[in-house]
Amino acid sequence: MAGIVVIFDFDKTIIDVDSDNWVVDELGANDLFNQLLSTMPWNSLMDRMMKELHAQGKTIEDIEEVLKRVPIHPRIVPAIKSAYALGCDLRVVSDANVFFIETILKHLEIRDCFSEINTNPGYVDEEGRLQILPYVDFQTSPHGCSLCPPNMCKGLIVERIQASMAKEGKKRIIYLGDGIGDFCPSLKLREGDFVMPRKDFPAWNLIKENKTLVKADVHEWTDGEELEHILLQLINAITIEESQLLSVECKFHTMSKASHGPFPRPLPVPY
Q1: Degrees (nearest 5) of the Cα angle 129, 130, 132?
Q2: Does the annotation mark 9 as catalytic?
Q3: Sheet (strand 4-8) strand order
Q4: What is the pLDDT of residue 144?
Q5: Which residues, in sequence order, are bridge partners of residue 67?
Q6: Closest listed residue to residue 124, CA positions, set 189, 197, 53
Q7: Mind listing the pLDDT tens digit for each residue in 13-52?
Q8: How far is CA 263 from CA 142, 257, 260, 267, in A?
Q9: Which residues on adjacent β-strands are paired with residue 175?
């Protein structure tokens, strides 16, 4: 239904691993990554790792090949294609980066299913090195959210999506995620919306501990098969509910019009 916006986190939601860790591990840079981990924010660390990998002779093509073999549950792609075919507006909100996400989605042939990807910018410079930038320049314009990492507040992104939805006449959000960063946007959802946290992951734990703060209906999932089943079930339930509301509204207008009867004929004008 065109009235539904489905927002996906990416790492450990669409794919089954963290894309940053996957690239670092597969390209043999895990020891260096662990040495630097406590010295800088994650997003800055990933940019530094791309610089180090480039210095070691790893190419963009090497990174792309690693990304193309990222683990993903076999039911995720069909779930995304089904939601798109049903008319949902699909978007990504992720603390990964645009190069990793777009490479994977294009390889899976589902990039066109998404109307928007909100993530950290990334580009290949003139030397062939991948540079990763923060979504928010936290040195000059901090987002001010204590729940989120300095480079990105997903809650603010969801608020912007909600504002655009109001202009487009869209009504409901289904939000899927797993990590600590997915808790803040869950708090921005409204009654009538749905949040789908991955069971036994940080977002699920935080939502469980703060039930009274979450207005959206909560539907947990464990793997791609369960994600597909619950997501399509929710889309179907919303579709039926909206169809019934539309039917009631149409019936009300018909009855209202009938109760007034035909317009009275004008009285003859005396001469």
Answers
A1: 140
A2: yes
A3: 114-120, 89-97, 4-8, 172-177, 194-197, 217-218
A4: 86
A5: none
A6: 53
A7: 999 999 999 999 999 999 999 999 999 999 999 999 999 9
A8: 62, 10, 8, 12
A9: 7, 195
Q: What angle do CA 203, 208, 210 make, to 5 degrees?
A: 95
Of residues 9, 18, 89, 178, which has the active-site annotation? 9
Token output for 152: 């990105």
- Spatial distance between the Cα atoms of 165 and 116, rounded to a whole number of angstroms: 13
Amino acid at 243: S
Contact 93, 185 (CB under 8 A): yes
Measured CA to CA, the distance from residue 93 to residue 101 in angstroms comes to 10
Round to whole Å and give the CA distance between 184 and 166.
20
Give pLDDT tens digits for 162-196.
999 988 888 899 999 999 999 999 999 999 999 99
The residues facing 26 across adjacent strands are: none
Q: Which residues have CB under 8 Å from 33's CB, separation 6+?
A: 24, 45, 49
Find the length of the chain.
271
Instruction: Please count the other Cβ atoms lying within 10 Å of the Cβ belonging to residue 212.
Output: 5
Measure the CA angle with vertex 138, ends 137 and 143; round to 5°. 105
> Amino acid identity, residue 139?
Q
Secondary structure in 3-state letters for 127-176:
CCCEEECCCCCCCCCCCCCCCCCCCCCHHHHHHHHHHHHHHHCCCEEEEE
Confidence of residue 142 (pLDDT cuts 50, 70, 90): confident
CB 107 within 8 A of CB 121: no
Query: In this predicted model, what pLDDT tens digit does every residue of 106-128 receive, in sequence order?
Result: 999 999 999 999 999 999 999 99
Please give the sequence-ordered ranges of beta strands (E in DSSP) within the chain, or none if there are none. Answer: 4-8, 89-97, 114-120, 122-124, 130-132, 172-177, 194-197, 217-218
Residue 11 is a catalytic residue: yes
